[in-house]
Amino acid sequence: MIELTGNNLTVEQLKRICIHFEQIAISSKTMERVQESRVAVDRIVANKEIVYGITTGFGKFSDVRIDTKDVEDLQLHLIRSHACGIGKPFEETIARAMMVLRLNALVKGYSGVRPVLVEQLVKLVNQRIHPVIPSQGSLGASGDLAPLAHLALVMIGEGKVFDMTGKPTDAASVLAEKGIKPIVLQAKEGLALINGTQAMTAVGVINYIEAEKLAYDSEWIAGLTMEGLQAIIDAFHPAVHEARGYPQQTNVARRMTDWLEGSRLITKQGDKRVQDAYSLRCIPQVHGATWQALDYVKEKLEIEANAATDNPLIFKGGKLVISGGNFHGQPIALAMDFLKIAIAELANISERRVERLVNPQLNDLSPFLSAQPGLQSGAMIMQYAAASLVSENKTLAHPASVDSIPSSANQEDHVSMGTIASRHAREIIHNTRHVLSIECICALQAVESKGIENMAAQLKAKYHEYRNIVPTISKDRIFSTDIEAVASHLRLQNDSMGTLTLEKT
């Protein structure tokens, strides 16, 4: 059980909650903070004070005064009108992460919601009642309004949730079945639920978890390629990398050396050639730079996971209520754009290694790794597929954060597009996993021709693991099936991803 305090939620804890379904709790001390901020909201309503979103309309309607008798209707209308999501729903894992992140923001005690609303969210998370949330429609400021409105619908007994088979079903029937009474939103509560960055951050967290694993996988796959091409290990000498000074680069070189320990396929400079192409020689430099980006992204995600991002925020027991802009998603937009570029580069360099594995002008292997060159094409079109994916990644890697478009009659005149950046990063991760799968298949074939008995022990274990997934290429077959099989195994193979089966690779 993980206790949410609003202050110390980590990516590792989110992995346990959202992927391994660990349950959550809120301490009584944390609930006291929630109650204190709620008392302040009740006083504002009772005293008919003019405070944005509590006794006024929203956005351009912020100058419209709302009567006390209408504050509940104001919140209900807000949720229904803002539920404008479009397109394919987010995976359940992401919907769950959105709920946990929104809950963690609310329990900081700056949002003015009732404890009963917090308790409702805890029940939904712990009973795995996950809202169906369309993935498109957010500008990333004022936060992720449309996606979070679909989350809030479930709390009031409207909208849809995923059933046990992953199909959408009416939330009202599931809540009734579980004995959970829908919430009637009171002053500020609708706004507190939807004014924040939890959609982009939820996608970002799941992106990071998968990207981190992909970065590790890219190293042993590159190691297989190095054995298949009898590459030179000297370039990984620690002195080279310590001379530059980036710890991530040094760490990649060390891990690559560990993977290749004991290999009789790896060469020294001058044995077969003086130096390798950049896609082999510069693995620590390129992959290391991706790790630098991952470190940056993780830091920003953990800050945002513990941030108060709604508006207005309530301080000093209600003596200070400030309408600000913490809902603006620019920090996560930039982080996700950085992640896009970093993961796209793993695909770029992997595809170049695939080319070296299949091009007979660049190696001494069978042309295109074919069992019968000419009669059979072998891995020729797998390289085409990899090239297509890296080209698509280049389009997706265009920064979403440099775009903006005014909304709400120019009141909200600069927005982050952070959720678009997160979604595009997700597609790049998906594409990159498939490029690395292609490299893996080609490298497995290459090391066979060089002698499995001469492989490094750790890589030989990987060879046997993946030969159980894809057989040797003894003749042409439908390689799409192999690529998908390897990609699925890469995604699910170890504890980093647990038993995540909520999205097909």
If you had to describe this structure to a student in words, what would you say it looks like?
With 505 residues, the chain is mainly alpha-helical. It has 2 domains: 2-196, Fumarase/aspartase (N-terminal domain) (Fumarase C, Chain B, domain 1); 204-310 and 323-405 and 412-492, Fumarase C, Chain A, domain 2 (Up-down Bundle). The protein has 18 helices and 8 strands. The strands form 4 sheets. Strands 1-2 form a two-stranded parallel ribbon. Strand 1 (2-4), helix 1 (11-18) and strand 2 (24-26) form a beta-alpha-beta unit. Helix 14 runs parallel beside helix 16. The protein is elongated, with a radius of gyration of 26 Å. The model is unreliable at 494-505 (pLDDT under 50).
How would you sum up this structure in a few lines?
This protein is mostly helical and 505 residues long.
> How many domains would you count in the coordinates?
2
Structural class computed from helices and strand pairing: mainly alpha
Order of helices and strands: EHEHHEHHEHEEHHHHHHHEEHHHHH
Lateral strand order in the biggest sheet: 1-2
Mean pLDDT: 93
Number of alpha- plus pi-helical segments: 18
Indicate the CATH topology of the largest domain: Fumarase C, Chain A, domain 2
How many beta-strand segments?
Answer: 8
CATH A-level architecture of the largest domain: Up-down Bundle
Give the helix level as a range of percent: 40-55%
Largest sheet: 2 strands, parallel
Oligomer: single chain
Work out the radius of gyration: 26 Å
